[in-house]
Amino acid sequence: MYGTDTVKIMTGHPYEVTIGSGILSHIGELLPQRSPCIAALVSDDIVDHLYGNEVTAALQDYGYTVYHFVFPHGEENKNMEQLSSLLSFLAESHLSRSDLIVALGGGVTGDLAGLAAAIYLRGIEYVQIPTTFLAAIDSSVGGKTAVDLPEGKNLVGAFWQPMAVICDTATFATLPENVFIDGTAEAIKYGVLADPQMFELLSGADFREHLGQIIRRSVAIKGDFVHDDERDTGSRQLLNLGHTIGHAIEQCSSYTVAHGHAVSIGMVIIAKAAAATGICDSAVPQMIETALANNHLPTRCDYSLARLVDVIQTDKKRRGDIISLVVPERIGHCRLHKINVAEMASFIEPGLK
Ligand code: NAD
Ligand code: GLY
Fold first, then answer.
1. Ligand 1 mean position to 107 CA, how many Å?
2. pLDDT single digits (tens) 3-56
């Protein structure tokens, strides 16, 4: 027998996140009950090579007919071309509204497959099987799906909740260390947002023996924000701590700086900027920087203020001339701080020092 833990996500269509180790081969029985159908299994090449056969066999055992869509790994492939290829693949495979997309992989796969699920036949069901730490605690939950445009990140997307999320923590054993660390930035973000105890645990030497507990808690925190504001018009925006500057860093680097690494730098910059204007105590940026650095995450970047501000102008969180930045007030509590784009440079400048 295998053990699992579950967290319920209370969106318009509630669903469960199932967390366990070694559960990939039980995917068929862990999926919510449904008649056997076609499952379009979507993975990047690396994840397909590692886990594609195991998941295919587990689905076939439960009567699913499985078709594979494999695309080249990397953020640069989270784009309109891959989305278009995937949609054609679904049509050529004759998927109907009663069929299913299974996203097996990291956040790139989940975002791409989720968007295809949202728009193919005006929406079909999909399941997230996250295989990175970041996808497990963040991107697989909450129904944000998207691809990037040359003009900016995640500019084409939809809100479309999965029917289930199944997270096998054993898949993290094959993660390159820098990809695992990338997820740690998002876990630290949850600590800064809502859980000083978890923040302390993540700031320390080795939290990996508590990984199941950290995933469960992170998903529960995210679930609460998503429940309160599924369409991201208010409090859910707090989940963007570090992301406005982080997205700009990703884009300036042509996506060679990974998402979590960019968010790490973004959190430090915004915390220092918040301290400079008296929103939080100067101990707060110091604590955040130490927690991130202890986990081998970057806390500084070489991009100029002018370049970052230029990219931030295209941020999808801008409403007219106003951008809502997420600022920490203390560890465990953040708030939205609305500023005019014209004031952005002077606000974040102290954060770059
Ligand atoms: P990713 O999907 O690119 O995965 C990182 C690398 O790890 C890839 O090369 C992949 O092939 C490899 N990989 C994945 N699982 C593996 C495994 N078990 N063993 C070995 N290699 C494995 O990146 P990511 O960090 O998972 O996700 C980043 C993406 O998620 C970004 O596009 C970001 O915008 C998005 N994101 C979305 C949300 C959301 O709410 N939708 C939230 C946060 C991040
Ligand atoms: N990753 C931010 C959100 O899901 O809202």
1. 4
2. 899 999 999 999 999 999 999 999 999 998 777 799 999 999 999 999 999 999
Q: Which of 49, 55, 111, 128 has most ligand 1 atoms within 8 Å of its beta carbon, as the pocket-test mutant? A: 111
For 324-352, write each residue's pLDDT tens digit.
999 999 999 999 999 998 999 999 999 99
Pairing between β-strand 38-44 and β-strand 65-71 as defined by DSSP bridges: parallel
Taking residue 233's Cβ as centre, other Cβ atoms within 10 Å add up to 8
Contact by Cβ (8 Å): 221, 195? yes
Atom of ligand 1 nearest to the CA of 250: 34
For residue 328, the SS3 value is strand
- pLDDT (tens digit per residue) in 167-188: 999 999 999 999 999 999 999 9
Could you tell me the domains of the chain? 4-174 (3.40.50.1970), 177-352 (1.20.1090.10)
Pairing of β 15-20 and β 4-9: antiparallel
Q: Any residues with CB less than 8 A from the CB of 195 and at least 6 apart, and which?
A: 217, 221, 332
Non-local (6+) Cβ contacts of 30 within 8 A are: 4, 18, 23, 164, 166
Residue type, 147: V
pTM: 0.95
